[in-house]
Amino acid sequence: MNDRRPLLIVLTGPTGVGKTDLAIDLALHLGTEIVSADSRQVFRELKIGTAAPTQEQLARVPHHLVGHKSIDEYYSASEFEQDALRALDGIFGRGRCAIMCGGSMMYVDAVCDGIDRIPTISDEIRRSTWAEYESRGLQHMQQCLLELDPVFYGQVDLKNHKRVVHAVEVCRMAGKPYSSLRTHSRRPRPFDTLRIVLSADREVLYDRIDRRVDRMMDLGLADEARAFYPKRSLNSLNTVGYKELFGHFDGLYDIGEAVRLIKRNTRHYARKQLSWFRRSDDYLWLDPERRDEIFSIVDRRLDDPAGFQSPSSGVI
Question: In which element (H, E) is residue 194 found?
């Protein structure tokens, strides 16, 4: 048993599918801890709109990388990778397995496979590049990117101003083309992974999403968003739920339309998440309602790594 590599159990999937509750139950079953892989739950101020674990849930199972940053702080997938690996090293020192729970696709990939080493952008370059975009527009930034990195210029969605500006930032920070840093090589890890995508029928998932948005509104999401309205330009607030309410505060539409847009855009994001995970054969797709089967699969993998056979593909 002592010669076995520790196991990271990844519970991911679309927003609203029920990852948090299942992860807590599984952690209690295994006697382990949870590392969050949610790119917005890292911000301590954002509680309702990110569906962050409640104080009661945090008290039941130790969680890592929840609420450890402020919305004013820059935080990247590369920084998350290093923070998560340090957290996992501590958890594996206390036991044979850990759980990573969250639906931020790049965060999950960063921990499981490693991501390209993109330099952290300095505050000076970030401010000056975004000021340049705001004063001179997207077409100017596209031309900058073409001059700095014609390869990535031919790959990026040129209408996505965030990706264009970020690529220019990276080129300026690194002093070399962004494309030259994108190697997509998988890094070895000192642990094994069991990667599970929790999924459900589309109608069931969409109903869960709609009900969750209604619950967030009942809990005070509009008041939470209004408190951050003066800081609405922060990247940490550029997320579904807050963006739509900021539009309502700007007078673009009424509160009913804001809620409708939150539900619609959350469903769009869920589809994007599912498409991302379908690109890999490393994931086991399971129905979150069939908890006993999920627990059994995890137990079998822990008890007999050599003899473990993954269930056939498809949602069970």
Answer: strand 192-198
pTM: 0.81
> Do 266 and 15 form a contact (C-beta atoms < 8 A)?
yes
Compute the distance between CA of residue 183 and CA of residue 186 in angstroms, rounded to an integer: 9
Q: Which two tokens stand for residue 189?
A: 């890890």
Query: Which has the closest alpha carbon to 98: 195, 196, 7, 217?
Result: 7
Q: What is the distance between the alpha carbons of residues 62 and 33, in angstroms, rounded to a whole number?
A: 5
d(CA 43, CA 50): 9
Structural domain total, the chain: 2
Q: Residue 237 and residue 71: Cα distance in Å, rounded?
A: 7
What CATH number is given to the structural domain containing 64?
Answer: 3.40.50.300
Looking at the fold, whether 202 and 175 belong to one and the same domain comes out as no
- Tell whether 222 and 171 lie within a shared domain: no
- Does residue 310 fall inside a structural domain? no
CA 81 – CA 198 distance, rounded (Å) = 22
Task: Tell the burial category of 42 from Cβ atoms under 10 Å away from its Cβ (0-12, 13-18, 19+).
Answer: buried
Q: How close are the terminal C-alpha atoms of the chain, in Å?
A: 29
CA distances from 23 to 2, 27, 185, 287 (A): 25, 6, 29, 13
- Residue 221 CA neighbour count, 13 Å, CB half: 24
Look up tokens 């990667």; give the residue: 195
Domain final position from 135, 160, 181: 181
**Within this chain, do residues 203 and 237 fall inside the same structural domain, yes or no?**
yes
Q: Which residue has the tokens 């922060």?
A: 234
Q: In order along the chain (316 residues), what is the average pLDDT of each group of 10 residues?
A: 82 96 97 97 96 95 96 90 97 97 94 82 90 95 95 92 92 91 81 96 96 97 97 92 97 98 97 92 94 96 84 55
Which bin fits 259, alpha (ψ -120 to 50), beta or left (φ > 0)? alpha
The boundaries of the domain holding residue 144 are: 123-181
Do 70 and 193 lie in a common domain? yes
